[in-house]
Amino acid sequence: MLLVTAIVLDGLNYAAWLFLIAVGLTLIYGVMRILNIAHGAFYAIGAYVCASTLGIYYSAGLPDALAFLAMGFAAIIVGLFLGLVMERGILKLLYGRDEVLMVLVTYALFLILEDAVKLIWGVESYFAWQPYAYLGYVEINELPYQIYDLLMIALAIALGIGLWFWLEKSRMGRLTTAVVADREISAALGINVTRIFATTFAIGTIFAVVGGVVTAPKIAVTPGIGVEVIILAFAVVVIGGLGSIPGAAIGAIFAGYARALSVHLAPELELFAIYAVMSLVLAIKPHGLFARAAGRKI
User: Fold this and answer.
1) Domain residue spans of the chain
2) Given this model, what pLDDT does residue 159 score?
C-alpha cells in the first residue's frame, strides 16, 4: 500500500508540474500557430526571479507565510512583461510568415535569453528552499508527503479550471476561440486579432514563469534548466495534441504516471518512460490524442 500511495502521489505531482509548463506552450500554438521554443527560457527566468525575490524577501525579515504572495506577484509581473515585450517587439513583425521561420525565431530568442540569464545571475546555483520547508509535511497512508507538493497539484487544477473558464465563459475567451477557428474571417468581422494574440502570448508566458517560480523552492536553480523543460513540455503537448488544453492535461497525466511508475518500479527506465509513451501515442494517433481536425481552405 505504501508503494501504491507513493506512485499515485508522485505521478499526480509530476503531472501537475508538467501541466503548468506545457499548457502555456499548447495555448500559444493553438491560437497563434507558433511553437514557442523560448518557453523553456521563460521557465528558467521564472525560477531565477523566484530565487532572487525570496532572497530579498527573507533578507528583509518579512513573515514566512507571506512569501507565497511575493512569489505569485513576481510570477505575474515578470510573465506579463516578458510576454508583451516579446510579442509586441518581435513576433508581431513576423505574423503571416511560415511556421518554420517562427520556430527558428523563437529558438534564437531561447538562446539569447539563456545567455541573458547567465549575464544577470551568473553561473552559480541558487537555492530558495524556505517555502518548501516552511509548510512541512503530512502523512498519507503512513507516507510522509510534503504539503508544498500537494499545493502544487491544487494550483495546477485551479489554473487549469481558470483557463477553461476564461476560454469558454468570458467574452475575450470566446473571441479567442473564434480566432482559432479562422483568424482571417475573425479580422473581417471586426475582432481585434492583434489584441487576442498579445493577450494569448502573455498568458502563455505567465504559465511558463509560474512553472519556474513554483519549481524553484524544490531544486537548485542552475543554468540550463530551461532546455530539459522545453523538451518535456513538447513531449506532453505532442501526446495530448498540439493546441489542445484538455490534451495538455491528459498528456501530463500520462507522462507523470509513466515517470512515477518507472521511478518506483524500474528506475533505469526513468529517462525513457515519457518518450516511450509519446512514441506509442504517435504510433496510434499521429496528431496526438486530442488534436483538432484542420479546416480545409479553398
Assistant:
1) 24-230
2) 93
**pLDDT reported for residue 297:** 42
**Would the CA dihedral through 278, 281, 282, 283 be positive or negative?**
positive
Closest CA to 75 of 40, 58, 50, 44: 50
Cα distances (Å, whole numbers) of residue 181 to 103, 148, 156, 187, 239: 22, 39, 27, 12, 22
Q: What is the pLDDT of residues 66-118, one digit of tens each?
A: 899 999 999 999 999 999 999 999 988 888 788 888 899 999 999 999 999 99
Residue matched to cell numbers 505531482: 13
The values of phi and psi at residue 111, to 5°, are -65, -40
What's the predicted TM-score (pTM) here? 0.91
Q: In the chain, how long is the greatest CA-to-CA distance?
A: 64
